[in-house]
Amino acid sequence: MKTIITTPSSELAYSDFLRGGDIVHLPDLDTAPADELLREVTAHGARGLIMSRRPPEAFLRHWCQSVPGTTYLSYVTGTPSRSAPRDLVEFNHPDGGLASIATALSGFERRFTLQHAPAHPALPASGSRETVLIGAGVVNLVTALYLWRDGYRVTVLDRSPAPGGEHWRRYGCTHAGDDARMFTFTEMDGYNNQDFHGRPPAHFRLPVDQGGWLAAGDRPLSPSERAWIDEFERVPSWLARAYNQDIFAFTAEAFHEWTALRQEHPNLFEDVVLTDGVLRLYADPDHHRAALARHCALGALARELTPGQLSEEFPGLAGAFETGALAGGFLVPGFTVGVHRFTQRLVTFLQERGVVFHWDTPVRWVRRDGTGTVTGFDCPVPVPADAHVVASPGVDGQALLMGSPCEGRIQGVLGGWMRISNEHARLPHSLKVGRKGHVTEDANVTVARDGDGRPTLIVGSGYGYTGVGTDADEAQLDAIRLGIIDTIERLFPDQAHRSASSRPADNYDFKYCVRPWTATSLGIYHAETTAHGGLFVINGGHNTGGFAQAPAVARAVLASLGDQPHPMHALYHPERFTAFMTDAASATTAPRAPAASRI
C-alpha cells in the first residue's frame, strides 16, 4: 500500500523503514499548505499518510475522493471530527520518533489486512460432518481432537508408518527428532530483522559452518528457494515487529486452550514428563536485559532471579555461571512435554473414540480442474467427495500446496537433538538458552526420561535451511552437532564427559527433524471450497511454534467449518505480506511534484 511519511526524522534515512515496500519519505510536507500536500499524496496515489498534525477537513475530503478505497491517517496532535470521511481510518500515536512511525505503519498494515484479506469461503449448504486430515503431526492431532469433540467424523491420513515402530528418519517433524516440545509465550518468535537500524540478517546466504543457516551444501538453490530467501530479507523491521505481535497473540490464545485441555483431558498429560515452568538463560548481559524487558512487557514473567539465586536454586548450572558461560536468567510461564509420549496417548485416545488412522498412506496430489477448483485427492484411501479436508503437510507435502496461494511458502529448516543425563544436574525445569551469534543461538534443554525411566535432558538447537526438501549436507549437519556439543559443555562443564553423545566421533545419539518455516515467520492458513461442497484447509509453516500454537490452529479450523470468523484466517493468510507490500518503491526520498492549486 502506497504510504507517505511527512514527519521529519533524519533516522529514517538510516533505517529499513523505506525498504521493500511502497513507502516514501517527504519530511518537508509536514507543515506544507494543504493544497501542496494534496498534490503530493494524489500524485503518488497514497492511501496512507503519517503526519505530526491532523490536516484540515477539506484536505481529507478531497484526498478520500481522489484515492479509491479506504485511506489511512496517523498523526500526533489533533482530534478526529464527526465530519471526517467515512472511508478514512484514523490513528493517534505518541511522538516517539521511529517507534511512533512503526506503530503507525503497523496499524495501517493490520487494519488493511483485516479489511482486504480474501473472503473466507462460506460453508457449503451440504453441511457435511465428514473430515479428513492429511498429516498426523501434533497440529493435526490436536485438530482431530477438537473436531471429534465437536461431533465430526474424523479420518487421519499420514505418509509415515505408525509412530514408534520404525527408524526416526522415516517420520515427519513431530515423530522424528527427539521426545521434547516446549510452550512459552514467545514460541514461534520471528527471525526477520526487528532492529530499526539493522539490516536483514544473512542467515540463509551462508552455510552453517560459516556462521549461517544454509544446510543445502553445494547444490544450487531452485527459483522457489531463492524467492523464499529474498522474501525473508524483504520484511522490514517495523513489519517484523507487527507480525510478532500477532504471533504472540495466537500463542496466548493457545495457552488458554492448553490450560483447558489439561483440565478437561488430564489423562492425555499423564506419563508424558509434563514439566511446568521454563527457565530462560542468556550468555550475554545485554541480551538478558533486553529479553527481561520484553517478557515484562508481554506479561510473561513468573520470577526474576539474580545469578547468585540461580546458582543456589539450580546447582547443576552453578558451573556455567562460575565460568561466565551464563550471565543471567529468569523463570517464565510455560511447560514442556515428551511429544512422542503425548502424541501416542492422543492417537490411542482418538482411536478408542472412533477416529480412523491410515498410516503409510501418502496423499500425493490435489486434483484441480481448469478453473483451479479442487476436485479430489490422489490417495490410496478414497477421500469422500463432500468431506472437509484439512492438510498440515509439513515440508514433505509440497505437492499438496500446488495451485494454492501456499505454493512455495513452506520450506524446511532443520534442528538437531542430543541427550545427556539429568541425574547429576537434577534440573526441575526445562531451559531455553540464548547464545547470540552462536551456531546454537537458541537451545531448548528439556527435562525428559529415557526408555528405562532414567532422568535425562534433551538438548535441541541449531538452524539448517533445507529449502523445499528435507535433505541436508553432512558437513552442515556435523556443524550443528558440534555446536550442540559446545552448548552442552558450556552449560554443564562438570558432566559433559558423561554423555556418549559428546564424543565427536559418535553420531548415534544425534537426531534431527526438518521443521516447516515461512519467510515471514507467520504461520499459514488458507481455506477454499471444493467442487463437491466441502472445504479444503491448509495450515502449517509455524517455524518453531507448531506445538505451541496447535490448539489455536484447531480453533481456527473449527471456525472455518462452522462458518465463523477467526483472526487467524486473515492474519496467517499466505499472501498477507505481498498484498500490503509492493515491489515498486525505492529506499530514497521521493521527488517533489509541482505546486497544486489552492483547496
UniProtKB/TrEMBL annotation:
<dbReference type="Pfam" id="PF01266">
    <property type="entry name" value="DAO"/>
</dbReference>
<feature type="domain" description="FAD dependent oxidoreductase">
    <location>
        <begin position="132"/>
        <end position="557"/>
    </location>
</feature>
<dbReference type="GO" id="GO:0005737">
    <property type="term" value="C:cytoplasm"/>
</dbReference>
<dbReference type="InterPro" id="IPR006076">
    <property type="entry name" value="FAD-dep_OxRdtase"/>
</dbReference>
<keyword id="KW-0560">Oxidoreductase</keyword>
<dbReference type="InterPro" id="IPR036188">
    <property type="entry name" value="FAD/NAD-bd_sf"/>
</dbReference>
<dbReference type="GO" id="GO:0016491">
    <property type="term" value="F:oxidoreductase activity"/>
</dbReference>
<protein>
    <submittedName>
        <fullName>D-amino acid dehydrogenase small subunit</fullName>
    </submittedName>
</protein>
